[in-house]
Design a protein that fits this description.
It contains three helices and five strands; from the N terminus they run αββαβββα. It is of the alpha+beta class and 168 residues long. The chain has a five-stranded antiparallel sheet, with helices on both faces. β1 and β2 form a beta hairpin.
Length: 168
């Protein structure tokens, strides 16, 4: 008789290593979701330009690191609230990888599926840009253009938060 039952020696088990402790989690910044002071027309223009620059992009979502939707321009039946939550989940995983490996802050993550891509880019400590595209999208071109869009979005969000800070 052959099989798992024939093994007499126990399999090795992984044990916890005492290599120190991880740093405490950073608190999340205040949410931008529903903030009426945001420059939505300018943000919408940036999202639209990215969608038009890269053939195969179905749309973009600007969401908070808390998983709440800020705004979107999706051209599919995907729920933008779900996509904002998925972007935050992707960010959380990428952030933990960066912390554990000592590689620094989250920058970008791409997931490829049978029918397309989801790429998530850091915009600011509060916001993420998620881009949904079909399988034929030129991912290199997306990675070339999306960080610049994320930078411009960060500038727009900074203007808003700076103005809010001046009123306090």
């Amino acid at each position: 008789m052959s099989g798992i039952d024939d093994i007499e020696t126990p399999l090795p088990r992984r044990t916890a290593r005492a290599t120190g402790t991880l740093p405490p989690p950073r608190p999340l910044p205040p949410s931008l979701a529903g903030n009426m002071a945001l420059p939505y027309p300018a943000i919408g223009q940036e999202l639209a330009e990215l969608r038009l620059q890269i053939p195969g992009v179905h749309g973009c979502v600007l969401g908070g690191v808390d998983g709440l939707l800020i705004t979107h321009n999706l051209q599919t039946d995907v729920d933008p609230n779900d996509l904002a939550a998925l972007a935050a989940t992707t960010y959380g995983l990428g952030r933990q990888v960066g912390l554990r490996l000592g590689q620094g802050d989250f920058q970008q993550s791409t997931v490829r599926n049978a029918g397309g891509y989801l790429s998530v880019y850091a915009v600011s400590p509060q916001a993420l840009l998620a881009v949904v595209g079909e399988d034929s999208i030129n991912v290199a071109r997306l990675h070339l253009h999306a960080p610049a869009v994320a930078g411009r979005l960060a500038g727009l969000l900074d203007q808003c938060t700076d103005a809010a800070g001046d009123r306090s």
